[in-house]
Amino acid sequence: MTTSAALESFLAELERLRGDAASSLAAASDAGAVEQARIEFVGARSGRLKAVQKLLGGIAPADKPEAGRRFNEIKAAIAELFAAAQDRTAAAAADTAGGPLDVTLPGAAVPLGHLHPITQTIRRVQEIMGRLGFESVDGPEVEDPWHNFEALAIAPEHPARDPLDNFYLAVARTAEPLLLRSQTSTVQIRVMESRRPPLRIVSLGRVYRPDTADATHYPMFHQVEGLLVEPGTTMAHLKSVLRLFASSFLGGDVRVRFRPSFFPFTEPSVEVDMEWGGRWVEMGGAGMVDPAVLKAVGYDPATVSGFAFGLGVERIAARRHGVDDIRDFYRNDVRFLRQF
Ligand code: PHE
Q1: Partners of residue 230 on adjacent β-strands
Q2: Does ligand 1 come within 6 angstroms of the Cβ of 266?
Q3: Where does the chain hold its CATH 1.20.58 domain(s)?
Q4: Which numeric CATH code is attached to 3-95?
Q5: Residue 285, ligand 1, Cβ within 6 A
Q6: CATH class of 117-337
Q7: In this structure, which residue's CA is closest to atom 4 in ligand 1?
Q8: pTM
Q9: 92 vs 22, 85, 88, 89, CA distance in Å?
Q10: What is the pLDDT of residues 131-167, one digit of tens each?
Q11: CA of 279 to the centre of ligand 1 (A)
């Protein structure tokens, strides 16, 4: 059986169609170009495959099975070429989804933590006192009785030394009983022992007393200790410095009041109250450094005098931020802490 001319040209047409489709798809670099080729080659109404299919009508009946088989083969091959081209362009599109990386774009904000309100207060006090010429110094939290009591003229029988009022550390019976310092006045002594006047220092740190926790007490709290020793220092200097500090820390409308009091290591001694927002609050103690203390550290009370003050950090922080209960500072509730 000889192949008719009509079949010959039909098969040639099919072959050309496959070749053209292959090269069109090879050149198509994106989904749009693949779609264009799809319409051109296999479009339902005017695609080239459809046109070739119509030629089947002119094939002699004897050649029809052969022509139909080849047509289906080429149709399937072209469909495969399209499927592969669609996969390829879709993968390329996914790779560049969102466009190329722009390294100059601003970063997304990641909320960071911040300093604890007590730490913020400590830094602020250091900064204000620094502007008044007071250098920040540190001292140990575990102290000996000399620095916590004796050098501060707190006699052995003084009730402030009572084991019920202090955290003494359990040590061998023969050793000197160390304790967690109950006040930062220890640092006054340490600084005066190691330096000569003139002195202007401020020391902020933890102190410990076995108090029951309530709205204004906590067994661990922080104090600001200030000390100035220079020839000619008077109570007027003490008042001025505390007033300047209070108005810098709380604002110009703060009022400061001094009430006569007693501390073994200052003479005269005062209690310091501050009024802000309509309420007076006791902030700490102060006074002129007792000449006996100056002598104990080797200074000459006839040529230098000084003042000292000690304020509660939690109290001034609570006052400034309107916190009613200092225990809130230590509950570690982030809803509270985030407000500062
Ligand atoms: N250290 C005293 C206290 O803790 C406060 C104070 C400091 C008083 C300095 C006078 C001078 O109560």
Answers
A1: 305
A2: yes
A3: 3-95
A4: 1.20.58
A5: yes
A6: alpha beta
A7: 183
A8: 0.68
A9: 19, 11, 6, 5
A10: 999 999 999 999 999 999 999 999 999 999 998 999 9
A11: 22
